[in-house]
Amino acid sequence: MTNLAKERLKIYVPGEAASLLEKLGEFLRQRNINCYVVGGFVRDGLMGRTNSDIDLAVAGDALETASEVARAFSARMVPLDEVNQVARVVFLQAGYQWHLDFATIRGSIEEDLRLRDFTVNAIAVKLSEAKGNWPRVEIIDPLGGFSDLGLKIVRAVSDTSFRQDPARLLRAVRLAATLDFTIEPDTEALIQRDSRLITNVAAERLRDEIGYILETHKAYQSFRYLDRLGLLALLMPELTSSRGVTQPKEHFWDVFEHSLETVACIERLLREQDNSKEDEIISQAPWSSDLADYFGQRSAGGRTRKALLKLAALLHDIGKPAAKTIEQSGRMRFLGHAKGGASMAVQIMERLRFSNREIKMVQLMIEHHLRPGYLLSEDMPSRRAIYRYFRDTVDVGIDTLFLGLADHLAARGPTLDLDQWRKHVEVTQYILAKWFEGKATVAPPKLIDGHILMEKLGISAGPQIGQLLEMVREAQAAGEINTAEEALDLVRKHLENNQ
Length: 499
What we know:
Strand 11 (325-326) and strand 12 form a beta hairpin. It is built from 27 helices and 12 strands. It is globular and about 85 Å long. The chain is of the alpha+beta class. The strands form 4 sheets. A 6-stranded mixed β-sheet has the order 4-5-6-3-2-7. It folds into 4 domains: 4-151, Beta Polymerase, domain 2, CATH 3.30.460.10; 154-235, Hydrophobic Seed Protein (Orthogonal Bundle), CATH 1.10.110; 242-437, Hypothetical protein af1432 (Orthogonal Bundle); 450-497, no CATH class. Helix 14 (255-269) runs antiparallel to helix 17 (305-315) and helix 14 packs across helix 23.
């Protein structure tokens, strides 16, 4: 289908978006401004999907048009690229947020579409002709994007697409993962040819594309694909240095393969794979609607806990190559790799401009990813051990438990000992129950504070106050004390014994 399609097609547009676009179309018509809906919104609508990001190509100054629209509709305008005239207007419609990105048309609409990234994104609809009639609307499709939607392929619009914008190298993989498409062979060859250009892309754009990949249920396949295309080594050279680093016999794969397999196991544990219900090993592992909601929580950077957990899985053993030693007995060890790997992950995430909160979450997961395994040494971990675990992992204790489960599965692979796995699952279930049933064990309510210690026991302000309060909290979590009087008595005896 090329040029102006005479056949009318159905584009799914939610009622709120249709209403918003109809009002916008009338506003622009009165000002004689031609406007086209383009890109992902049209693509997803043709696939029967919704998209809250609406790309608009306007004839004229996009920044000025966006500013006028924002004023007229009491919305918020954010300039995105003043050089190339791109601006965003954020609308709140029926309690939902819509992002309308305005860009200036480069030449005719057909010429503009030929400058876009992929054919499935190079489809347009003239807004004035739609007039709310989205079930039967004409599309402008000069590059056969509608046909490629049917074929489920990602195809570059030209052989210079990636040279024009190297961020498209990563976006192609992200788009394939998001849509469950495959990258067309000639486009794949172009990616391999131009892969080194990825180093010229702004860190924030790389971060966002990686984040989108992590949010999909195909993060594992995508990272494998990025490795085959030569992009992973350029994005995270620290990770690929673990390739071929052997591990003890308990591990089925080398460090690099194990790291990728851990991401796959996270996706299985989060029930993101189609066969998860038939997966007997995974069916034993904990899952609930509460856990699904928990991993769907978003960080300050906008990424979910599940995305950050997958990133931690990918990087959790990144410190092993530097920490590897072989003793005279032949025993292989990786002492300190968790702490060292956490520091390396921080450097990678800082380089990619992740938020401080996201960096801290991944750092804690990696630093403590061995802790769940340590809790298996007892029949069931004590209340004190559980308290200490959640205290040290701060607010990623549950995330780290799942990282521990994935690490276990990815270490053994097809040689998994089912009895050991059941034990690991049982202990994890027990710890999670302590968290969800009541937080008295993991975060006991305060019995006393520093002012009480200074007033009742005559202790001077200083670091000792914090140490004593932590001792009280730990004893409380262990069930040894339950009242303020018992807390004061514990502190009093401790001070007497240490005079």
